[in-house]
Each structure stands twice: as C-alpha cells, then as structure tokens.
Design brief:
Elements: E1 12-16, H1 18-31, E2 37-41, H2 43-47, H3 51-60, E3 65-68, H4 71-79, E4 86-88, H5 97-103, E5 105-106, E6 108-109, H6 112-124, E7 129-136, E8 144-145, H7 149-157, E9 162-169, H8 180-198, E10 205-207, H9 211-216, E11 224-227, H10 238-243, E12 250-255, E13 258-260, E14 267-268, E15 274-275, E16 281-286, E17 303-306, E18 309-314, E19 322-327, E20 342-349, E21 352-354, H11 356-362, H12 367-374, E22 380-382
Parallel strand pairs: 1-22, 2-3, 2-11, 3-4, 4-5, 6-7, 7-8, 7-9, 9-10
Antiparallel strand pairs: 1-12, 12-20, 13-16, 14-15, 16-19, 17-18, 18-19, 20-21
The structure holds pyridoxal-5'-phosphate (PLP).
Catalytic activity: L-alanine = D-alanine
Pfam families: Ala_racemase_C, Ala_racemase_N
Organism: Collinsella stercoris DSM 13279
C-alpha cells in the first residue's frame, strides 16, 4: 500500500480515503444480522479504487467474501494475499477452470456443460469445485431460468466434484423497491429457492441484494448482501442517500504544471474551442486527461477547485492534460495560481465540493462509470 501523500513521479493522482472505506464497510455490516454475511464487490479494481488495498481494509472492517468480474481479478486478489472466499460473478470459459481451482475462486454457474467440465477437473485433482448457481429472475443477463432451477441442480448435482456453495440472483431495478418489476423478481427468487429446498437441494448461501437492495429492501437480505458502489461512498440513487449516509472514498487531485497569460483572442488547446476574452486570463495546465478517466465531453463545461473556489476548465480536454482558466474578476479578486499549486478535480476543498455525481450527470452517465475510469491510469494514494 502506497503511503506517500502523493506520487513522486506525477502531479495527478487519485486519493483513496481508507478511513471512509472502513466506515462505509461497517455501515453495510450494521445493516445485516450477526449470522448474515457481507460480500464486498471489488470488480473493476474495486470500481477504480484499487482492489488489493481496498480488500485489505474491507477484510479488517468485517467483509466475509469478495466478488470479482473476471478470473484475473480473482487471481490478483489471491496473489495479494487475500484469504477470504472469492466469488466470480459470471461463468468463465472452460479454459479458466484450472485457474479457478488453483486460486480457489468460486465461479457463478448456469450451464450444465461448464458445471460438468469444472466438476470433472476438480475431481481429477482430488478437489471439490465450489460454485454459486446464478438464477435469472428477470434481468435476462445471466443465470438459470427461475423455472428451471431444480432441473439444473438435478443435472449437475450427481457429480462428486461439485459443491453448490450458494444461490443468487441480481436485480435490475433495486433502486425502485416498491415497483412491480422489483417485486416480481423478489417473488421469483424466493420461490425458486423454496423449490430447491422442497426438492431436497441445499441452496447454500442465498443472496440477491446489491447496494440499493441492501439499503432499501432489507426483507431480501437472506444469508448475504453483495455491496459494491456504496462501499466506495457513492449512492446508487437519490433514495438511498437519506437512509444510509456514506462518505466518498475517492478524490482526484492534480498540481499546476504550467501557467501563461495568452493575449485576447488566442485559442487554448486542440481546436481552439476556447479563446481568451478581453479580460486578463491565466491559463493553468493540469497533467490529467481523458486517458485518466476525465471524460472529454466535459471540455469547457466542468470546473475544478482552487483555494476553495470553482474555476472553469477551458479548451478541449487532451489525452493527458487539460487547462483551467483563472479569470480576472474585480468583484471577486482571486489570487492566480503558480506551478505546483494544488487543484481538486473531484473532492472537497474548503467549503466547496465537486462530486463524481456532478460529473456523471454532466456526462449523462452514472457515478460507477466515472469511478472506474479514474482508476485506469492514475496512481492511487491511500490516506
Ligand atoms: C456489480 C454487481 C453487484 C454490486 O452492485 P452495486 O450496485 O455496486 O452494489 C452485485 N451483484 C452483481 C451480480 C453485480 O454484477
């Protein structure tokens, strides 16, 4: 875990607040009973926050399991020393089976062919291949159809190399728990689990709630909740905000690398989408661009914080850099920036704050996508 306050080689970074991450994890723990488990979803490098480091913090704060989206994400967690159970949230190609068994990663399973191949290989190594059965209750993304769960278990359970460790589904509209669509998914899932039990099959750990479901629909917690976005302090929707306050974990910071005062009419950046007006303007360059997850559609629209004040980003955002204007304003004089001065792209500076939600709504997307993007190249500093 990086312990410096900023990276030595680059004046742009993602600051990850481990205290906030710990408190958010505990907040989810507090939603569930002592016998229920918390599965922390750390796919996509923990939504851009750095999976290995975040998993350590979550483990210490009470995580019981981790969920990943790819086999290599699971392998990376194991190579970082993670010992808790790891669930892969989809069924990988058969070529992944050896890695699953070697690194003790439980796949989600929903095709008999995969289950058989997995069971065969496990048995030939003298192991038992644990899996979670995914049920399609209406999202129509992955899973065994909710009416076919008993048949599915019958077709795979005879295999001595297989063990069903859990049964789950995923909700498409958990942010609207009173809606008919959500109620229908809940009903289909509850009935499918009951059918499995009636037919004599042990479903193992039963789970379905994601972040919004965990917060808004505790009746569906079953044996485990799978929290992702909320752990990182981001709200999945407006409704959850009032129920479970969370602290944002990721801030994006950069230092000014260059300043200049172009004359009136001069352009800034590719395409000159901004031109210097009549007033004196200081153009400050920040070494962060769209390859760092700062979407180019925000060009000339977003703001950054400097000394607790909002400043306009100007010109097209480049791959690795962008420019900010500090305009002369006789009503509110602002000190100009110098090379090395700190600016905040996401996070708090004094009383001012820019959230991932603000940027996401300007991009017509969700905070999830922005967080993942900032994780791509920026170094993470854990504070
Ligand atoms: C991503 C994901 C989650 C976590 O969802 P959040 O909304 O981030 O809490 C849970 N379950 C599955 C199957 C997922 O794909």
């Amino acid at each position: 875990m990086q312990t410096l306050s900023e990276p030595p080689t680059r004046w742009a970074w993602a600051e990850i607040n481990t205290g906030a991450l710990r408190r958010n994890t505990r907040a989810f723990k507090s939603l569930i009973g002592a016998r229920q488990r918390l599965c922390c979803v750390v796919k996509a490098d923990a939504y851009g926050h750095g999976a290995a480091s975040c998993a350590k913090v979550m483990h210490a704060a009470g995580a019981d399991m981790f969920a990943v989206a790819t086999v290599l994400e699971g392998v990376a967690l194991r190579e970082a020393g993670q010992k808790l159970p790891i669930l892969l949230l989809s069924e990988p190609p058969a070529g992944a089976i050896d890695a699953l068994l070697e690194f003790d990663i439980m796949p989600s399973v929903y095709s008999p062919e995969f289950a058989w191949a997995y069971g065969e290989r496990a048995a030939s190594l003298g192991k038992v291949g644990k899996y979670h059965m995914a049920i399609n209750t209406g999202m129509n993304r992955i899973g065994v159809h909710y009416t076919e769960v008993v048949d599915f278990r019958r077709s795979v359970d005879f295999h001595a190399g297989l063990q069903c460790d859990g049964t789950f589904t995923h909700f498409a509209t958990a942010d609207e728990p009173d809606g008919w669509d959500h109620q229908l998914q809940c009903k289909r899932f509850s009935e499918a689990v009951a059918c499995l039990r009636d037919a004599g099959f042990d479903p193992g750990i039963v789970h379905c709630d994601n972040t919004p479901g965990s917060i808004l629909n505790p009746a569906m917690h079953f044996d485990m909740i799978r929290a992702g976005i909320g752990l990182y302090g981001l709200q999945p929707c407006e409704r959850t905000r009032a129920v479970l306050p969370l602290e944002p974990v990721m801030s994006i910071k950069a230092r000014v690398t260059h300043t200049c005062h172009p004359a009136m009419g001069e352009g800034v950046g590719y395409g000159f989408t901004y031109r210097v007006p009549r007033t004196r303007v200081e153009i400050c360059t920040l070494p962060i661009g769209y390859a760092d997850g700062l979407p180019r559609v925000l060009s000339n629209r977003m703001e950054v914080l400097f000394n607790g004040r909002r400043m306009r980003q100007v010109g097209n955002i480049c791959m690795d850099q962008c420019m900010v204007a500090i305009s002369e304003n006789p009503m509110h004089p602002v000190p100009e920036a110098e090379v090395g001065d700190l600016m905040t792209i996401v996070g708090r500076d004094g009383d001012a704050q820019i959230t991932l939600d603000e940027l996401a709504s300007m991009c017509q997307t969700i905070n999830y996508e922005l967080a993942c993007g900032f994780g791509m190249r920026l170094e993470k500093i854990y504070v």
